[in-house]
Design goal:
The protein is an alpha/beta fold. 28% of the residues lie in helices and 24% in strands. The protein folds into four domains: 90 residues, Ubiquitin-like (UB roll) (Roll), CATH 3.10.20.30; 71 residues, Ubiquitin-like (UB roll) (Roll); 145 residues, Domain of unknown function (DUF4445) (Nucleotidyltransferase, domain 5, 2-Layer Sandwich); 162 residues, ATPase, nucleotide binding domain (Nucleotidyltransferase, domain 5), CATH 3.30.420. Helix 8 packs across helix 13 and helix 10 crosses helix 14. It is globular and about 95 Å long.
């Protein structure tokens, strides 16, 4: 049931539902409440007075019985049960500081989720059939395999040309054990698996997104197309380099390529085990695996030397990669399970971007679309059904929590929601899962940078204002830093900080992404105002506050209704590929259609990158709404 929460004295109204958390609602509405523990209830600072309405609130030793009777509650432990009026106690502003008016960050944007219904028909690359063979006799002594061929031709209209050796070895015993009833799995025109009896219900696939920083996996039921389990992990190759260039360099060391493949395959095998454990499925019932990753990751997965991806004219070993047996590269699956790697376009535009483009449907629309996949290796596509241009830029791992002093992936305990009081520069922190803070995820880093910018804690170059009256800005071991969470309230037992070096990493990442978009548009003689829609992809895309991402100069300052979020487009595409042969064919067509622009050869890209190393940008005309908003604040931003 919908309810309205009225935050006072800011006079902000928020539409919500039963069970929504009050602290989270305040974050989304831009209403500041001091909170240092991430929503765990440990600090007791997020006190609010419920002046009207009902909340469900867990007990807390931070409130006395008398305070509770008066209507005081901890926002982090309170959930909405009716229309509410919530009074937030104000603190007097420090001398010379003006109080910001609360503003609503929430905006209406379109969210799209790719699913199996987005493809023309559910037609997996591997099919399973139940067969009833005619037993052999002295007058009909054709081979067991010939009997399978006959039955498939007669009952299903399918011609098979071959059979995997493991399946052939199993065939004689399986046929007789099943009293001539068999279940066969077919990939293309080749039988890859045989089981005695009717075992057709056991038909599953694994889909992987192989990112430079993170790995994601889905387990799919191929009988229904439904998602059974998901799992994720860091890419262990990080220990050999944060980005694709450093890993190409590492691969040229003695044993480097073999090591990069080994650690990746080992982690993917562990993710398969986790997916199976979560779902109760056995490994023998996996029919095939699909994988989407950038071109370097695809090469390293298959053990292909990526050396020439880094050297002009930047040529991959193959753009469309034939199917291989997953066990041949060391994946822990039995028998000849096919591994399907989605096609790439160029050295730094891979199957992940092709997967996302087809999953988003931008290749089928007349709308001029900019597709942005945010990750360590940022990839961009511009175009519509008639033409597609693409480019890649190295953003670094900051947006996935890497490269930051206290960075982490978007997991429980990661700082996500963040605001700062104008009065005393104390933080309001909400973590994923409202657990004690243990680090900063990518979306949290964007929110932090925006708040620092608006309150004047940092200047346009990202340096702290060291004259502010707050103990949270201090000299650390590696330079100046802001203490987000002090050790008694953190989940690590240590202070959680963000340093000037961290801020510099975030600014370089956002500058690279924006400059890549800017340069790609310029190559097509277009501007941001020409765009009909912008599609944001990436594993953490759904967590980004769009207004704040625009404010720091990551995304173009265009009408917000033109934005669409699809989350992890690469994983969505890999999942679609697991369920549709038609999708795979479309992905190959899209890959062939894309024209790649090498930004390393584009003279204007570096100029645009340097211009982006300020907040939000050196050209304020590119960010008119951000500039107008900052001019209204008095936080000292300059």
């Amino acid at each position: 049931m919908p309810y309205t929460v009225h935050f006072m004295p800011a006079d902000i109204y928020v539409q919500t539902r039963t069970g929504d958390n009050l602290l989270q609602l305040a974050v989304e509405a831009g209403v500041h409440i001091n909170a240092s523990c991430g929503g765990d209830g440990a600090c007791g600072k997020c006190r609010v007075m419920i002046t009207s309405g009902e909340v469900s609130c867990r007990d807390s030793e931070k409130l006395t019985p008398q305070e509770y009777a008066q209507g005081w509650r901890l926002a982090c432990r309170s959930t909405v049960q009716s229309d509410l009026e919530v009074l937030i106690p104000e603190q007097p502003p420090l001398h010379g500081q003006a109080v910001r008016k609360a503003r609503i960050h929430a905006h209406e944007t379109r969210h799209a989720t790719a699913s199996t219904e987005a493809v023309q028909g559910f037609d997996p690359p591997v099919h399973v059939y139940k067969l009833q063979l005619t037993p052999p006799t002295l007058t009909d002594n054709a081979s067991d395999f010939t009997r399978i061929q006959r039955t498939l031709r007669k009952d299903h209209g399918i011609e098979v040309e071959g059979i995997e050796l493991n399946a052939l070895k199993k065939l004689p015993h399986a046929a007789r054990e099943g009293v001539w009833q068999l279940t066969v799995a077919i990939a293309g025109r080749r039988i890859i698996r045989i089981e005695p009896g009717a075992a057709s219900a056991a038909h599953y696939a694994v889909a992987f997104d192989i990112g430079t920083t993170s790995l994601w996996g889905h387990l799919i039921d191929l009988n229904t197309g439904s998602l059974l389990a998901e799992a994720s992990a860091y890419n262990p190759q990080i220990s050999c380099g944060d980005d694709v260039i450093s890993r190409i360099i590492y691969s040229q060391k003695q044993g480097g390529l073999a090591h990069l493949q080994m650690v990746l395959v080992h982690e993917l095998s562990a993710l398969i085990d986790e997916l199976l454990l979560k779902s109760g499925i056995i490994k023998d019932d996996i029919s095939h695996i699909t994988a989407a990753g950038n071109t370097v990751m695809s090469h390293l997965l298959l053990g292909i030397d990526p050396k020439y991806l880094r050297e002009a004219p930047y040529v991959p070993a193959a753009s469309i990669i034939p199917r291989v047996n997953a066990s041949d590269i060391g994946l822990s699956v039995p028998g000849p399970v096919p591994l399907i790697v989605l096609p790439c376009v160029a050295s730094y535009v891979g199957g992940d971007i092709v997967a996302g483009v087809v999953a988003s449907g931008m290749h089928e629309t007349d709308m001029l679309t900019l597709y942005i996949d945010i990750g360590t290796n940022g990839e961009i596509v511009l175009g519509n059904r008639d033409w597609l241009m693409t480019a890649s830029c190295s953003a670094g791992p900051s947006f996935e929590g890497g490269g930051l002093t206290c960075g982490m992936r978007a997991m429980p305990g990661a700082i996500e929601g963040f605001s700062i009081s104008d009065a005393d520069f104390e933080p309001m922190i909400v973590t994923i899962g409202r657990k004690r803070p243990v680090g900063i995820c990518g979306s949290g880093a964007i929110n932090i940078l925006d708040e620092f910018m608006e309150t004047g804690i940092i200047a346009r170059n990202g340096k702290f204002d060291r004259g502010l009256p707050t103990r949270r800005i201090r000299q650390g071991a590696g330079g100046f830093e802001y203490v987000l969470v002090e050790s008694p309230l953190s989940g690590t037992g240590a202070d959680i900080v963000i340093t000037e070096a961290d801020i510099d990493n975030i600014m370089r990442a956002k500058a690279a992404m924006f400059a890549g978009c800017h340069a790609l548009l310029a190559n097509a003689a277009l501007t941001f105002s020409d765009l009909d829609q912008v599609i944001i992809a990436g594993a953490f895309g759904d967590y980004i506050d769009l207004e704040k991402a625009v404010a720091i100069g990551l995304f173009p300052d265009i009408p917000r209704e033109r934005y669409t979020f699809i989350g992890n487009g690469s994983l969505a595409g890999a999942r679609l590929a697991a369920g549709s042969q038609k999708y795979l064919e479309t992905a190959e067509d899209v890959a062939r259609k894309m024209t790649n622009i090498e930004l390393s050869e584009d003279r204007s890209f570096m100029d645009k990158y340097i211009s982006g190393l300020f907040l939000p940008h050196t050209d304020s005309g590119l960010f008119p709404t951000v500039t107008a908003r900052l001019e209204k604040t008095k936080g000292g931003f300059s």
